[in-house]
C-alpha cells in the first residue's frame, strides 16, 4: 500500500536533492520504515502478472529456467489428477534437484523484481519475476516446497485464498521445518510464531493437494530426496470457456498437450473441421517438442511423466554447420549500453555486499556479547550461517561480473577480421528447407525465431534451408519480461538484416550440392525451389545416416553420436525416450578424435564473391545493373526517372528489334527491380548501417510477398 503519512523530522520535504553521502550512509538510510510506508503488491497485480505469457509452454519454461539457474541437473514435470476429497482440481508438479532455498531466500522470491542474477550472462533469469508470472499463467495457486541442507520451507501464493478474504493485500503463508533424523521440528518458533505456524499450515492444506501435514511432509521427503532441491506445485489450473483444462495429458501419458484459448475457424495445416468437432484438437502440440530445443547447451535432463525428453543439439543437428562473426559495424551502441549496464550492476552488488556484511557483523556481535539460552543460541548461529552464505554469494557475483567486464572490454591484441565478438552458427535444415530462419538465444535460452527473407523464388534460393543460431547476452540486447521477444523491435530488425546478409554469404560458400536439384530430389523435394516443397518419408533416415544420431546421455548429460537404430522413426518423431540413453562403458571422457569431429569450423569466405561486405570484388560476369546507367549518377534523378524509363521500354525494344543487323547501335535500358537501388538477379544490396528505426522496421522480413511487383509499384 502506498502510504500518505507525512515524513518525520518536522515534516521536512523530500523533494529536494540528496547528497551522495546521505545515499551511501547505510547506518542512517534516508528512507526507512519509521518515515515512509513501502509499496506492496496486490492480488490484482499478481493475477495480471500471469497474463504476460502467451502460452502455457512459456509459463512452464519459466519454472524450468529457475531450475537451470539453481544448478539443477534433472527436472521432472508431472501432471496429476484431482486428489479425493479435495477441491484443488488437477495439478502440475515441477521438481528439480538444484541448490534449493532457505526461509529468507524463499520469502525474497515473492518480491516483484528481486533478483541476484541480473547482469550475469551465465544466468537466464534477470527480472526476478519468472516464478510468479510462470505459475500464475498455469493456475491460480502456487505451493513451493524447497530444501537446503536440513531446512525445509513451504510457501504458498494463492489467488483463490486472496479472493476469499477479499483484501487488497497479498498474504503469503510460509512454513519452515528442520528434519533431525526422522523428527520434523518447526523452525523460528516463539510463543507468538507458534500460533502463526498453525494458521499457515491450515491455509496451505486447504488450497493444496495435501489433506494432512503428514502428507505434505511425505511429499517433500519423496520429491526432495537429495541434499537440496525445489518442488513447484500449481493447482487450480486454467480452464477454457468450455470448462476443459487448458493443459491435458496425452493418450499414452508421455507428454502434456495444450489447448489454445483462441480458436481459429480454419487451420493452415490439415483439413478444415466441421462445426460439430472441437476446433481445439487440431491445435494441440507436444510439450516435449517445445522443450527439446529450449537451451543452446543443455546441461540437464528433462523428464515428462517419468520419460526423458529427447533434448536436441540446436547447432549440430543440421548439415555442414559453420560459424562466423557478426560484423561489428553499427553495434557500438549495443556495446556501450552493455558496458554501462555491467558497471551499474557491479556498483549495486557492492552496496548489497557491504549491507550484508554489516548484518553478519551485528549477528556475530550479539552472539559474542552476552549469554543466551539453547534455543536462542541455536537461532542466532543459524542466522549467522545464512548471513555469511549471502555474503559469500554476493562476493562471488561481484568477482564474476568484474571478470566478465574485463574480458569483454579489454583491448584485444589480435582481433578477428571484422572486429566482432558475436558468433552466428549456421547450417542447412534439409528436412525443412522451406523455412529459412534465425533462432535468437539469450544467455543460452531460446527467445524468438524469425524468418529469413524469402519474398521471391530468387531470394529464397539464396538462403534455401539455412538456419542461423545466435546467442546474445542479456546485457547487450535486453529481453522482454515474458522472454518471448525483445524490448526494442528496431534493434532486432537491425540485427536480422545483418544476419540475412551473413546467411546469403554462408549459402554462397556452402557445398555446391546444396544448389543441385539432384541433392534435394533424393530427400523427396520437387525440382523448383519454393517454400511449399515437402520432404519424403525416408528423408530422416538419410539425414541421420549422413550426420549420425546425436543423443544426450541421461547420466553425464553429454551428447554422443550413435548409429541410426532400426526404430529411429519412433525415437525421432515422439521427441521423448521410453528408455533414456546412456553412454557405453560408464560415460568415459570424450577422446580428442570425438571432440575434433564435434568442433564446428569457421566459415571460409575466400575465393568467391560475398554478400557480406566489400572485401571481395564483384566478378565482371555479374556486374550490377547500376553500372549500365552511369549516365544518371544522382540517386534522386534515378528515382525520378524510373517511371519515364518504364514507359520507354516498349519503344526501346522495338527500336532494337528493327536494327538487329547492326546499322544503328542503341544502348539497352534495364529497369531495376527496386526503384532506389538497381540490382541484378544475382546481387544483394550492401550493408546499410545508418538506417532509421522506421526503415529498419520496414525492412524486416516478417510478412511474405509473392513477387517484387507489388513492392516496386508501392515504391514508385
Automatic annotation (TrEMBL):
Gene Ontology CC terms, in alphabetical order? nucleus
**Compartments it resides in:** Nucleus
GO molecular function terms listed in the Swiss-Prot or TrEMBL record: metal ion binding
Bias class Low complexity marks the residues at 8-21, 644-663
Which InterPro entries does this one have?
Answer: HATPase_C_sf
In what ranges is there compositional bias, type Polar residues?
A: 690-708
Q: SUPFAM superfamilies from the xrefs?
A: ATPase domain of HSP90 chaperone/DNA topoisomerase II/histidine kinase
Coiled coil among the record's keywords?
yes
Coiled-coil ranges (or none): none
Q: What domain of life does the UniProt record list for this protein's source?
A: Eukaryota
- Using the UniProt annotation, give all residue ranges assigned to the region (Disordered): 1-26, 607-716
Which coarse location class applies to the principal site listed for this UniProt protein?
A: nucleus
Q: Kindly state which keywords UniProt assigns to this record, in alphabetical order.
A: Coiled coil, Metal-binding, Nucleus
> PANTHER family from the xrefs?
MORC FAMILY CW-TYPE ZINC FINGER 2, ZINC FINGER CW-TYPE COILED-COIL DOMAIN PROTEIN 1
Record protein name field: Morc-1
Species of origin reads Pristionchus entomophagus
Provide the taxonomic classification.
Eukaryota, Metazoa, Ecdysozoa, Nematoda, Chromadorea
